[in-house]
Amino acid sequence: MHVIVDLCVIPLGVGVSVANYVAECQRVLEAAGLSYQMHAYGTNIEGEWDEVMAAVKKCHEVVHEKGAPRISSSLKIGTRTDRDQSMQDKIDSVHEILGTRPE
Amino acid sequence: MHVIVDLCVIPLGVGVSVANYVAECQRVLEAAGLSYQMHAYGTNIEGEWDEVMAAVKKCHEVVHEKGAPRISSSLKIGTRTDRDQSMQDKIDSVHEILGTRPE
Amino acid sequence: MHVIVDLCVIPLGVGVSVANYVAECQRVLEAAGLSYQMHAYGTNIEGEWDEVMAAVKKCHEVVHEKGAPRISSSLKIGTRTDRDQSMQDKIDSVHEILGTRPE
Amino acid sequence: MHVIVDLCVIPLGVGVSVANYVAECQRVLEAAGLSYQMHAYGTNIEGEWDEVMAAVKKCHEVVHEKGAPRISSSLKIGTRTDRDQSMQDKIDSVHEILGTRPE
After folding, report:
1. D60 — pLDDT class (breaks 50, 70, 90)
2. Interchain proximity D53–C53, CB inside 8 Å
3. Is residue C103 domain-resident?
4. Tens digit of pLDDT for each residue in B62-88?
5. How confident is the model over C12-71, as pLDDT tens digits?
6. Chains that touch D (3 or more CB pairs under 8 A)
7. Of A7, D9, D15, D63, which one is least surrounded by beta carbons within 10 A?
8. Phi, psi angle pair for B39, to nearest 5°
9. Cα angle D65-B10-B53, degrees, rounded to a multiple of 5
């Protein structure tokens, strides 16, 4: 089952600056060989369900190992059986309707 | 790794009424032997990471099987390494501060 | 426009225990006269859009005033124009299908 | 109060293709003069609380007007009182740690 998710990991108990922890998660996604794209409030990730979810678990593990005693993540999970659709397809569909082009 | 999640499964392409699909997910959670509690905008689930996530995957599978061609779920994921905390503990902590009691 | 939301406020920079801040938000909702129900990973709130959103803003304000320098909230927002539906209606629909009764 | 949000609007009862509705929301954000950036699972928006929330409400209104009888949105809301931070600042912080540059 192919999945497109959006992951936002929030470490608690480590102060207000969370960029170091977000960076760790980016390294996890890179090492997992997944297709991903960070934005200002999370990261889009695409792949097979089990591989993507293994990476989400790994993110929690490394953020805890890096010192965060508590984590609260938000994960949006999109699956469909009617047709294949990539993250880029979703963005392209909207730009096509708007007559705009992604930068 | 113990986890408390909040799952909200939204089937697309099956009209406005989604209660049948939510009911299917409740059956999945019951069959999985997990501790869970439905509310008006999702379901709290508690257990070991792998078991909870297997149930979330199963929910997507059964909702697709039941006819939904597309699903968009929201999942909040809470983990902590500093201490054990159940779903009820979280609720009790707030009620204790407020001097109120859950009904 | 009637709305059912689910609000989860996460204060950052104040340690791992967030119950005091959640309790402040419950007081805001109570003072606003809104219908609400806390669960283990957020709070369901029901009412007119502007009143509910004013309460959400007030929650951010009081949590900052109470000392949290940073907040990351999750809000699910449900609206429908086809019919009236309360938070309890949503729960009842699922229990009816399952043949169960809320405790 | 400055806010960075991430908005994902899901229309129900209109089939599986939602790009037309997402495009309507992009038009709302453009017309509102807000800073925003669409990604594959939502749109980051930045601005003053009241203006951003007025745009979120407008999105629900136009999506209903365009024919969706039911909407379920997800909104992440970030505020901070310790310092100013833009959407780009958040992304830059992570890229700086990783030693990478956004494309």
Report:
1. very high
2. yes
3. no
4. 999 999 999 999 999 999 999 999 999
5. 999 999 999 999 999 999 999 999 999 999 999 999 999 999 999 999 999 999 999 999
6. A, B, C
7. D15
8. -130, -170
9. 155
Contacts of B16 (CB under 8 A, 6+ apart): C80, C82, D12, D13, D69, D70
Residues in chain D within 8 Å Cβ distance of C8: none
Residues in D closer than 8 angstroms to C82, CB to CB, are 13, 69-70
Report the 3 state secondary structure along D60-71: HHHHHHCCCCEE
Residue A103 lies in a domain: no
Interior/surface letters D15-41, b for 16+ CB within 10 angstroms, e for the rest = bbebbbbbbbbbebbeebebebbbbbb
Shortest CB distance from C79 goes to which of D71, D76, D82?
A: D71
Instruction: List the structure tokens of A19.
Output: 């960029």
Chain C nearest-CA residue for A18: C12
Q: Is residue A42 part of a domain?
A: yes
Split into its structural domains, chain B has a count of 1
DSSP symbol at C61: H
pTM: 0.96
The reported pLDDT for the residue numbered A28 is 98
| Cα–Cα dist A98/C102, whole Å | 46
Choose among C86, C83, C34, C71: nearest CA to C55: C34
Q: Is residue D64 part of a domain?
A: yes
In CATH, what number is assigned to the domain containing residue B9?
3.30.70.930
Domain span at C22 = 2-98
Query: Measured between alpha carbons, how far is residue A15 from residues C16, C69, D82 in Å?
Result: 10, 9, 11
The DSSP secondary structure of chain B, one letter per residue, reads -EEEEEEEEEEESS-S--HHHHHHHHHHHHHTT-EEEEETTEEEEEEEHHHHHHHHHHHHHHHHHTT-SEEEEEEEEEEESSS---HHHHHHHHHHHHT----
- Give this complex's ipTM: 0.94
